[in-house]
Amino acid sequence: MSLPPKDALDTAFFGRDASFDGLFFAAVTTTGIFCRPSCPARKPKPDHVVYYETPAEALFAGYRPCLRCHPLAGQDDPAWLESLVSRIEANPGERIREGDLRALGLEPATVRRRFQARYGLSFQAFQRARRLAAAFEAIKQGGDLDEAILDHGYESHSGFREAFARLFGESPGKTASRPGSDYVRIAWVDSALGPLVAGATDKGICLLEFSDRRMLEAQAKTLRARLGLPILPGSSVHLERLEAELAEYFAGTRKDFDLPIDEPGSPFQESVWAALRTIPPGQTWSYAQLAMAIGDPKATRAVARANGMNRVAILVPCHRVIGADGGLGGYGGGLWRKRRLLELEGAELAPLLPADTGEEAEDSPGLFADGA
Fold first, then answer.
1. Range of the domain at 350
2. How many domains does the chain have?
3. Which end of the chain has fewer CB atoms within 10 angstroms, the N or the C?
4. Separation CA 365–CA 332 (nearest Å)
5. Residue 16, in any domain of the structure
6. Buried b (16+ CB within 10 A) or exposed e, 67-96
7. What whole-number percentage of the chain has pLDDT above 90?
8. Distant-in-sequence, close-in-space partners of 320: CB < 8 Å, separation ≥ 6
9. Cα distances (angstroms) measured from residue 8 to each of 54, 56, 244, 254
């Protein structure tokens, strides 16, 4: 499902139309809070509102659930998942451990798998991300450093600095003083093939990957190494456009994307990624054809590796490259997704080969392989 046009969302939100509850969520940029459409709280100015299809998107864009309309309640997720998320949001500094989960009648492995599938994070990683974001927000709004650290579950300054730097790439003091354009904004986007984690700089989209394929920490580490910028939850014009264009793409009304891409790599990698964007929707190339397109016909395996190193899925359509035998080859998002993307675009595909029922091919290591 995709969001209706903004004017329709504005009408429902500012009219407090309860029939839209659960269909979208409104986030207020000036307060950092997101609400149901029917929320009875005083409405902000329209320019200060952004809309999300799911509460998870709003959470990972850095917004807190409203305490008046409780937007996390009553969704399709299991009641215990909603309860855990609400508990974390109510007290980000609390550390819920495996023993606590068992005391609630929950199996830790089940909780971990469910959080990983829904948010691209294990339960413990979800807690760390929300704890860090809450502490950082308190500091950025002028709160006392000691109080922010202790109130959000950290026993010392050094523990907070180490945790913050491990996830976001630099100290909280440096990040708080950075201008808005000097970091990567990261958010979650739902799709017909599962949640995607997306990142953007002011130059364009720098990350788009299915969130169940890698951990956030690994994604953050690679992006920091490639771009030399810290990473924070947030939204941007590029991410809002990305969400809208992806919705159109999965609805079958869009074939090409109009978004700028910020994907630096080696000259060879950049030549491969540029060639990928010339493959028309509904067509497929072999790795040999891709090598020919960049003027280096002997570089088939190197081209395959560069193809696998692409970190902007769909927009840089590495899924349109298949094996010379008609087999799917490899894909960092999973071969079943590669086939679905190609089918969505109208590509003619050979019957499934034995290799197409497995995972990535050896020469296509996925978006965030070691050494990327």
1. 267-357
2. 3
3. N
4. 7
5. yes
6. eebebbeebebeeebbebbeebbeebbeeb
7. 33
8. 276, 279, 281, 283, 284, 285, 342, 345, 347
9. 17, 22, 14, 21
Tell me the pairing of strands 285-286 and 33-35: unpaired
Q: Are residues 74 and 151 in the same domain?
A: yes
d(CA 369, CA 124): 23
pLDDT value of position 191: 81
Token pair belonging to 172: 């909280």
**Residue 70 and residue 104 in one domain:** yes
Place of tokens 């978006």: 367
| Model pLDDT for residues 16-53, shown as the tens digit of each residue | 999 998 889 998 877 778 899 999 999 998 888 888 87
**Contact status, residue 123 vs residue 113, Cβ threshold 8 Å:** no
Phi, psi dihedral angles at 249 (to 5 degrees): -60, -50
**Digit-coded pLDDT (tens) for 5-20:** 888 999 999 999 999 9
Tell me the pLDDT tens digit for each residue of 243-282.
Answer: 999 999 999 999 999 999 999 888 999 999 999 999 999 9
Query: What is the chain's length?
Result: 372
Whole-model pTM: value is 0.55
* pLDDT for the residue numbered 146: 54
Establish if 159 belongs to a structural domain: yes
Q: Is 318 a catalytic site residue?
A: yes
Q: Which of 66, 69, 206, 318 is catalytic?
A: 318
Say whether both 29 and 146 belong to one domain. Answer: yes
Residues 329-363: b if buried by 16+ CB within 10 A, e if exposed: bbbbbbbebbbbbbebbebeeeeeeeebeeebbeb
Give which of 25, 88, 90 is closest to 61, Cα–Cα. 25
39 is catalytic: no
Are 146 and 138 contacting, i.e. CB atoms less than 8 angstroms apart?
A: no
- Do 211 and 161 belong together in one domain? no
